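Typical record was shown:
=====
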Amino acid sequence: MKVSVLTATYNRAELLKNLYNSILKNIKFGLEIEWLIMDDGSTDETKEVVQNFQKDVEIKYFYQENQGKMVAINKLVEQATGDFILDCDSDDYFTDNAFEIMKKAIVASKNEQDIYGLCFLKFDQNGKNMGNNFKNKKTTMFDLYFKEGETGEKAILFKTDIRKKYKHELEHGEKFVTEARMFHKMDEKYQMICINKPIMICEYQKDGYTKNIINEFKTNPFGYYKYFEEILQKDFKGVTFNKRLYVIKHYILFSYLTKAKKNLRKIKNVENKILFSILYLPGVLKTRIKFG
Protein backbone atom coordinates (compact mmCIF):
# COMPACT_ATOMS: atom_id res chain seq x y z
CA MET A 1 0.00 0.00 0.00
CA LYS A 2 1.91 3.02 -1.28
CA VAL A 3 0.98 6.70 -1.36
CA SER A 4 2.61 9.27 -3.65
CA VAL A 5 2.66 12.69 -1.96
CA LEU A 6 2.94 15.47 -4.56
CA THR A 7 4.29 18.92 -3.67
CA ALA A 8 4.81 21.86 -6.00
CA THR A 9 7.05 24.47 -4.38
CA TYR A 10 8.54 27.87 -5.12
CA ASN A 11 10.98 29.51 -2.69
CA ARG A 12 9.51 27.67 0.29
CA ALA A 13 12.63 25.87 1.56
CA GLU A 14 11.93 26.68 5.20
CA LEU A 15 8.28 25.65 5.02
CA LEU A 16 9.15 22.30 3.46
CA LYS A 17 10.85 21.38 6.73
CA ASN A 18 7.46 21.34 8.48
CA LEU A 19 6.08 18.92 5.91
CA TYR A 20 9.22 16.79 6.10
CA ASN A 21 9.03 16.55 9.89
CA SER A 22 5.34 15.63 9.74
CA ILE A 23 6.16 12.77 7.34
CA LEU A 24 8.85 11.50 9.72
CA LYS A 25 6.35 11.49 12.60
CA ASN A 26 3.96 9.37 10.55
CA ILE A 27 6.37 6.74 9.24
CA LYS A 28 5.68 4.57 12.31
CA PHE A 29 2.21 3.75 10.95
CA GLY A 30 3.67 1.58 8.21
CA LEU A 31 2.20 3.35 5.19
CA GLU A 32 4.73 3.32 2.34
CA ILE A 33 5.37 6.85 1.07
CA GLU A 34 7.15 8.42 -1.86
CA TRP A 35 7.40 12.20 -1.83
CA LEU A 36 7.55 13.83 -5.27
CA ILE A 37 8.67 17.46 -5.23
CA MET A 38 8.56 19.81 -8.20
CA ASP A 39 10.76 22.86 -7.68
CA ASP A 40 9.01 25.50 -9.78
CA GLY A 41 12.09 27.65 -10.43
CA SER A 42 13.06 28.45 -6.84
CA THR A 43 15.98 30.80 -6.21
CA ASP A 44 16.42 29.86 -2.55
CA GLU A 45 18.12 26.73 -1.13
CA THR A 46 15.19 24.40 -1.90
CA LYS A 47 17.34 21.86 -3.75
CA GLU A 48 19.91 21.63 -0.95
CA VAL A 49 17.23 21.32 1.71
CA VAL A 50 15.50 18.51 -0.19
CA GLN A 51 18.81 16.68 -0.63
CA ASN A 52 19.18 16.63 3.16
CA PHE A 53 15.69 15.13 3.48
CA GLN A 54 16.50 12.24 1.16
CA LYS A 55 18.50 10.34 3.74
CA ASP A 56 15.31 9.65 5.71
CA VAL A 57 12.47 9.73 3.16
CA GLU A 58 12.04 8.39 -0.37
CA ILE A 59 12.01 11.60 -2.38
CA LYS A 60 11.99 12.27 -6.11
CA TYR A 61 13.11 15.83 -6.79
CA PHE A 62 12.33 17.57 -10.09
CA TYR A 63 13.02 21.07 -11.34
CA GLN A 64 11.24 23.23 -13.91
CA GLU A 65 11.54 26.86 -14.92
CA ASN A 66 8.63 28.69 -13.31
CA GLN A 67 5.43 27.45 -14.96
CA GLY A 68 3.07 27.43 -12.01
CA LYS A 69 1.60 24.89 -9.62
CA MET A 70 -0.81 23.23 -12.04
CA VAL A 71 1.83 22.35 -14.63
CA ALA A 72 4.05 21.11 -11.80
CA ILE A 73 1.33 18.82 -10.43
CA ASN A 74 0.47 17.53 -13.90
CA LYS A 75 4.09 16.47 -14.36
CA LEU A 76 4.33 14.89 -10.90
CA VAL A 77 1.20 12.81 -11.47
CA GLU A 78 2.91 11.25 -14.48
CA GLN A 79 5.87 10.24 -12.28
CA ALA A 80 3.84 8.85 -9.36
CA THR A 81 4.17 5.10 -8.70
CA GLY A 82 2.00 4.76 -5.60
CA ASP A 83 -1.40 3.10 -5.36
CA PHE A 84 -2.80 6.45 -4.24
CA ILE A 85 -1.92 10.09 -4.94
CA LEU A 86 -2.21 12.97 -2.49
CA ASP A 87 -1.46 16.63 -3.25
CA CYS A 88 0.13 18.48 -0.35
CA ASP A 89 1.01 22.15 -0.74
CA SER A 90 4.36 23.41 0.49
CA ASP A 91 2.61 25.38 3.25
CA ASP A 92 0.66 22.34 4.47
CA TYR A 93 1.81 19.49 6.68
CA PHE A 94 0.34 16.29 8.07
CA THR A 95 -1.38 15.76 11.39
CA ASP A 96 0.46 13.46 13.80
CA ASN A 97 -1.74 10.47 12.93
CA ALA A 98 -2.54 11.27 9.29
CA PHE A 99 -1.02 8.10 7.85
CA GLU A 100 -2.88 5.94 10.35
CA ILE A 101 -6.18 7.59 9.35
CA MET A 102 -5.43 7.16 5.64
CA LYS A 103 -4.39 3.54 6.07
CA LYS A 104 -7.59 2.62 7.90
CA ALA A 105 -9.73 4.47 5.34
CA ILE A 106 -8.00 2.70 2.45
CA VAL A 107 -8.66 -0.70 4.01
CA ALA A 108 -12.28 0.15 4.81
CA SER A 109 -12.99 1.27 1.23
CA LYS A 110 -11.11 -1.48 -0.63
CA ASN A 111 -14.31 -2.95 -2.13
CA GLU A 112 -15.64 0.37 -3.39
CA GLN A 113 -15.40 0.30 -7.18
CA ASP A 114 -17.05 3.57 -8.21
CA ILE A 115 -14.93 6.06 -6.26
CA TYR A 116 -12.00 8.20 -7.38
CA GLY A 117 -10.76 8.90 -3.89
CA LEU A 118 -11.13 9.50 -0.18
CA CYS A 119 -11.83 13.00 1.08
CA PHE A 120 -10.57 14.18 4.49
CA LEU A 121 -10.75 17.38 6.52
CA LYS A 122 -8.10 20.08 6.78
CA PHE A 123 -7.51 22.04 9.98
CA ASP A 124 -5.70 25.32 10.54
CA GLN A 125 -2.81 25.74 12.97
CA ASN A 126 -5.23 26.51 15.79
CA GLY A 127 -6.94 23.14 15.42
CA LYS A 128 -10.02 24.62 13.76
CA ASN A 129 -11.81 22.87 10.90
CA MET A 130 -11.28 24.92 7.72
CA GLY A 131 -14.78 24.05 6.58
CA ASN A 132 -17.69 21.96 7.84
CA ASN A 133 -17.98 18.30 8.70
CA PHE A 134 -19.27 16.12 5.89
CA LYS A 135 -23.00 15.38 5.85
CA ASN A 136 -22.84 12.38 3.52
CA LYS A 137 -20.41 9.49 3.42
CA LYS A 138 -20.49 9.21 -0.36
CA THR A 139 -20.83 12.18 -2.69
CA THR A 140 -19.20 14.18 -5.49
CA MET A 141 -17.15 17.32 -5.15
CA PHE A 142 -19.79 19.30 -7.05
CA ASP A 143 -22.62 18.12 -4.81
CA LEU A 144 -20.50 18.65 -1.72
CA TYR A 145 -20.01 22.37 -2.33
CA PHE A 146 -23.03 23.31 -4.44
CA LYS A 147 -25.79 21.24 -2.84
CA GLU A 148 -24.64 20.13 0.61
CA GLY A 149 -23.36 23.49 1.89
CA GLU A 150 -19.75 22.45 2.42
CA THR A 151 -17.07 25.13 2.79
CA GLY A 152 -13.30 25.27 3.12
CA GLU A 153 -10.46 23.17 1.75
CA LYS A 154 -10.27 19.38 1.87
CA ALA A 155 -7.50 16.81 1.39
CA ILE A 156 -8.20 14.19 -1.28
CA LEU A 157 -6.45 10.84 -1.51
CA PHE A 158 -6.92 9.79 -5.14
CA LYS A 159 -6.84 6.31 -6.61
CA THR A 160 -3.81 6.53 -8.87
CA ASP A 161 -5.25 4.61 -11.80
CA ILE A 162 -8.14 7.08 -11.99
CA ARG A 163 -6.17 10.25 -11.15
CA LYS A 164 -3.76 9.60 -14.02
CA LYS A 165 -6.65 9.87 -16.47
CA TYR A 166 -7.15 13.55 -15.61
CA LYS A 167 -5.06 16.70 -15.51
CA HIS A 168 -5.41 20.39 -14.73
CA GLU A 169 -6.47 22.06 -17.97
CA LEU A 170 -4.93 25.49 -18.47
CA GLU A 171 -6.18 28.10 -20.92
CA HIS A 172 -4.34 30.70 -23.03
CA GLY A 173 -0.95 30.01 -21.47
CA GLU A 174 -2.18 30.80 -17.95
CA LYS A 175 -0.40 29.32 -14.92
CA PHE A 176 -3.39 28.63 -12.69
CA VAL A 177 -6.83 27.08 -12.82
CA THR A 178 -9.02 26.10 -9.92
CA GLU A 179 -8.59 22.43 -9.00
CA ALA A 180 -12.38 22.13 -8.88
CA ARG A 181 -12.51 22.17 -12.67
CA MET A 182 -10.76 18.79 -12.75
CA PHE A 183 -12.73 17.48 -9.76
CA HIS A 184 -16.04 18.17 -11.50
CA LYS A 185 -14.96 16.16 -14.54
CA MET A 186 -14.05 13.26 -12.28
CA ASP A 187 -17.50 13.61 -10.70
CA GLU A 188 -19.11 12.70 -14.02
CA LYS A 189 -17.97 9.08 -13.69
CA TYR A 190 -17.07 8.57 -10.03
CA GLN A 191 -17.84 9.55 -6.46
CA MET A 192 -15.69 9.94 -3.37
CA ILE A 193 -15.94 8.73 0.20
CA CYS A 194 -15.83 11.37 2.94
CA ILE A 195 -14.13 10.84 6.29
CA ASN A 196 -14.69 13.36 9.09
CA LYS A 197 -11.10 13.33 10.31
CA PRO A 198 -8.30 15.82 9.58
CA ILE A 199 -5.09 14.66 7.93
CA MET A 200 -3.56 18.05 7.07
CA ILE A 201 -2.76 21.32 8.77
CA CYS A 202 -2.79 24.39 6.54
CA GLU A 203 -0.76 27.56 7.05
CA TYR A 204 -1.65 30.21 4.49
CA GLN A 205 1.20 32.44 3.31
CA LYS A 206 1.19 36.09 2.24
CA ASP A 207 2.26 35.04 -1.24
CA GLY A 208 -0.34 32.28 -1.43
CA TYR A 209 -3.31 31.94 -3.76
CA THR A 210 -5.97 32.75 -1.15
CA LYS A 211 -4.23 35.98 -0.08
CA ASN A 212 -3.97 37.17 -3.70
CA ILE A 213 -7.31 36.09 -5.12
CA ILE A 214 -7.99 39.36 -7.01
CA ASN A 215 -4.63 39.17 -8.76
CA GLU A 216 -5.28 35.51 -9.61
CA PHE A 217 -8.60 36.47 -11.19
CA LYS A 218 -6.91 39.13 -13.32
CA THR A 219 -4.01 36.98 -14.48
CA ASN A 220 -5.94 33.73 -15.04
CA PRO A 221 -9.41 34.78 -16.27
CA PHE A 222 -9.76 32.27 -19.13
CA GLY A 223 -9.42 29.20 -16.92
CA TYR A 224 -11.99 30.57 -14.50
CA TYR A 225 -14.30 31.51 -17.36
CA LYS A 226 -14.22 27.94 -18.71
CA TYR A 227 -14.76 26.58 -15.19
CA PHE A 228 -17.95 28.59 -14.63
CA GLU A 229 -19.11 28.00 -18.20
CA GLU A 230 -18.84 24.25 -17.60
CA ILE A 231 -20.75 24.53 -14.32
CA LEU A 232 -23.61 26.27 -16.12
CA GLN A 233 -23.97 23.21 -18.36
CA LYS A 234 -24.74 21.03 -15.33
CA ASP A 235 -28.05 19.96 -13.86
CA PHE A 236 -28.83 22.52 -11.15
CA LYS A 237 -31.48 20.46 -9.40
CA GLY A 238 -30.69 20.70 -5.69
CA VAL A 239 -28.18 23.54 -6.05
CA THR A 240 -28.75 26.18 -3.36
CA PHE A 241 -29.86 29.66 -4.46
CA ASN A 242 -26.76 31.26 -2.93
CA LYS A 243 -24.54 28.96 -4.97
CA ARG A 244 -26.59 29.69 -8.08
CA LEU A 245 -25.98 33.40 -7.52
CA TYR A 246 -22.29 32.74 -6.89
CA VAL A 247 -21.90 30.94 -10.22
CA ILE A 248 -23.83 33.54 -12.25
CA LYS A 249 -21.98 36.49 -10.72
CA HIS A 250 -18.58 34.91 -11.36
CA TYR A 251 -19.54 33.89 -14.87
CA ILE A 252 -20.38 37.54 -15.59
CA LEU A 253 -17.13 38.65 -13.95
CA PHE A 254 -14.97 36.40 -16.11
CA SER A 255 -17.03 37.04 -19.22
CA TYR A 256 -16.05 40.68 -18.80
CA LEU A 257 -12.39 39.98 -18.02
CA THR A 258 -12.04 37.68 -21.05
CA LYS A 259 -14.17 39.91 -23.29
CA ALA A 260 -16.39 36.93 -24.07
CA LYS A 261 -19.58 37.70 -25.94
CA LYS A 262 -22.86 37.41 -24.07
CA ASN A 263 -24.28 34.02 -25.04
CA LEU A 264 -27.31 32.54 -23.29
CA ARG A 265 -26.95 29.29 -25.27
CA LYS A 266 -23.99 28.40 -23.04
CA ILE A 267 -26.34 28.33 -20.04
CA LYS A 268 -28.40 25.13 -19.74
CA ASN A 269 -30.92 25.91 -17.01
CA VAL A 270 -33.85 28.29 -17.75
CA GLU A 271 -33.75 29.84 -14.27
CA ASN A 272 -30.04 30.51 -14.71
CA LYS A 273 -30.67 32.17 -18.08
CA ILE A 274 -33.17 34.51 -16.44
CA LEU A 275 -30.86 35.25 -13.52
CA PHE A 276 -27.96 35.92 -15.88
CA SER A 277 -30.05 38.36 -17.91
CA ILE A 278 -31.14 40.24 -14.78
CA LEU A 279 -27.65 40.45 -13.26
CA TYR A 280 -25.59 40.99 -16.41
CA LEU A 281 -25.48 44.79 -16.61
CA PRO A 282 -25.16 45.40 -12.83
CA GLY A 283 -22.44 42.73 -12.77
CA VAL A 284 -20.48 44.32 -15.61
CA LEU A 285 -20.67 47.73 -13.94
CA LYS A 286 -19.49 46.33 -10.62
CA THR A 287 -16.61 44.51 -12.32
CA ARG A 288 -15.52 47.69 -14.12
CA ILE A 289 -15.39 49.55 -10.82
CA LYS A 290 -13.50 46.78 -8.99
CA PHE A 291 -11.12 45.64 -11.71
CA GLY A 292 -10.86 48.73 -13.91
